[in-house]
Every structure is written in structure tokens, then in C-alpha cells.
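An instance noted here:
***
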Amino acid sequence: MSNVMLRRAGVPVLAAIAASSLAGGAAAEPETIRIACGAAAAFTDAAGRAWREDAGFFDGVAVTDVGAPADIATECRSERYGMSGFWVPAANGRHRVTLTFCEAYDGIEGAGGRVFDVQVEGVPLRGIDPFALGGGRFKPSTRSVVVNVRDGKLDIVFIRNKQSPQINAIVIEPLPFGGETAAPEGFDRARDVPRGEIRPIRYPSKTAGGERPANVYTPPGFSPQRRYPVLYLLHGSGDDETSWTTRGAMREILDNLFAEGQAEPMIVVMPLGVVRWAGAGSDDESREARQKAFERDLMDDLIPYVETNYPVEAETSRRALAGLSMGAGQTCWIGSRHLGRFAYLGMFSGGMVGRTFDDVAAAYPEGVAFNASKKLFWISCGHADVHYAGVLRTLDLFDARGVEYHWLLQDGSHDWPVWREALYLFSQRLFRKSR
């Protein structure tokens, strides 16, 4: 897990550092907030956890005794319903918010009797049906989401669909730091340091039936007599093999890191992420067909070409694959299907491109096999990214599979400032024997 990095007025700050640290004192760790909705007084449950009484709601009705059976958890023995919103002071930073629902109203006789939507810090949870989620009356269920608090308070909005919204408990859990340091001002600008070189190449592709383009970055002081680890870095939809250098400041970022000794010198290969081939019919132009074609081109054509023509280390432990948006989806899928080929994977603002959730859930490896093949599985996304909800759903899949990953929620949207910072942080973790 990792901390959240926010930027205010152009100055990077670590989001969860308390004000006391600015005054010279140690930063206090934010505490988990537990609220028993509808409860008239605070209490401690059987596990020794402290629960606050009902507070923070804009409106609605608190019910202190819903007539639940004795074996129902204490926090589910009361509820609030009919409310439109809720907010509570919370430390800036990344939090896991868990909402507990438990249908108690005897007028709800089955699924579909009560349905509503919830937005937690703008992240939507749609179609909440407490009866259906729990499988009946007095059967608790939970929904969780990871959000970024940026203004000192956590907001939840309830939107009625059929019957009034209801909720039994809210848990707001601050997530721990993961060793990240915010990218410094100017990290992506050219400095007076040794410069790497970028060369466009064309390589033979059996997949495409001809030559295809790529850009190759070699680090400062490159020598053909030395062998280097290699990162295959993928672009997003609408971009091409030049985008990481023309828009992503890849060379400036890595040149600066190498000059500071903060990253292991490496070769970076940036291919064109879309493969079109002669004779392809309309069925072949589906997203999944293109995905499979790129996979074949990368694994069967580009990597063998690079390992023949550049002094790269061919061991799995010295090979990484990462990408943004569409390239993150390609990384997600290719990395899962070739466990023995990449020790490092990086997904920036993307998830399961070209596949449905059920397809991926059925085919993605179990955590034991996946985790054994990886030194690092990095996933990052901006809090305002249009794909944020989809990224969270991807994380749900990985959690269900037992897949281990390093998750970073950044402040920002689906844009280059977020991806530049992700590359800056991700690349420092690559190929270091001590990491």
C-alpha cells in the first residue's frame, strides 16, 4: 500500500501528514472512524472497537432498535433511513470506506423493494439493494470503496431510487503509507545532466506482415559492452510510439533520476500499441482481436528483436512492462498470460481493456501463481480519472484472486501530469536488488 500525493498551488505535499508535524512534532496517525447509524450513544463492540453514535447526516430518521435477532452485530441493530447526505471530518489522504446495509423493514419482501445509489467522495456505488445484497431481511452486507479525502472532510450522498435509502454502519479507515515520496518540482524538466538518447527503429513483425515502428531510449553513458535491464513502456489510445517522449517527458524524468542515482540505468522500448495487418476482416477489428494481435507482436516479434539487437538482459527479473490507459489494460492482460516473462508490471490509469469483468475474472491467474512471478505489480490512478471506478473494480478482482499489488491514488485526472509522476515513482522501484 502507499500514501497519497496531493498538489496544492503547484507544491507537492504528502496528504496524510498532520499539522503537528509542521510545528515540529510527530505526525499523529489518523484513526479509523466507526459510526453506528441510528445508535443513540457510543459503544464498544465485542471485538473492542469503538463506535460513534449516529452523527453526520443531513436529514432522515434514526431508528435505535430495528428488532434484529440477537445474533446480529451490535452496529446492525440500529439504522438511519431517508437521508440525503452525510459528512464527517477526516484526515486528508486515502481511505477505505466500508458501508454496511441490513434490510429490517417488514414491508420489503424481496429483492428490488428498496434500491438507491450512493456517492462516496464522488465515487458512485449504484443500485444498492440491501435485501438482495444480504440475501434476505436481517442479513448484513457491505460495500467498500477507496477514496481520496482532499479538503478535511469525507462526503457521502444518498440518492433515492425506490424506497428511502438506509444504512447501518460506516467505517472510514485511513490507508497506510507505502514508502512513496512526492515527485519534486521540476522532476520532469530537462536539467544540466548527462542525456540519454532516443532513436526511432523499425523491426520486422510477422504478426503485422511487415515492419513496425518503435522508439528506443538508451541511458546516458550507454555502452554496447554493458548489459541493461529493459522496460517496455506502452502508450494510451489515440497516441503512438512517440508520445512518452513528446508528451510524457520520459527522457527528462529518467535522465534526472539516473543523475541522482535514484534509478537503475535501463533501456526503454516504446512500441506502437495498435497492430493492423493485411487481410484483417471486420471481425478481426474487434478490440479483443487487436489486443491479441498486439500481444503476439510484443512477445513474438518485438522482444526477440530487442534482445538480438540491443545489449539487454534477457532474464525475467530484468524485464518490466508498463503502460497508461489502454497501455495499462494491455499490461494487465499480457502480464497475466505470460507470468514467466515480466517480473515488474505497471498500470497507470487503466484496467481490463478489451475484456469484460466476467471474462477476466474467469481467466485471471490465482494469486499464488501470479505473486510468485512478480517482484512488483504497481497500480496507480488519479482521483478524478474518468476510469477510476473501473480501476477500483479491477482491484476488487485482484483482491478476490489474492493478487498482491502496490496501489497509489494520485491527485489528478486522466492526463499526462499524473502519468509522468507515476513513471517517476514506478521507475525508481525497478531492477533494484535492494528493493
Remarks:
- Residues 197-427 form a domain with the Rossmann fold fold (CATH 3.40.50.1820).
- The chain has two domains: 17-174, 197-427.
- The longest strand covers residues 153-162.
- The CA atoms of residues 96 and 146 lie 4 Å apart.
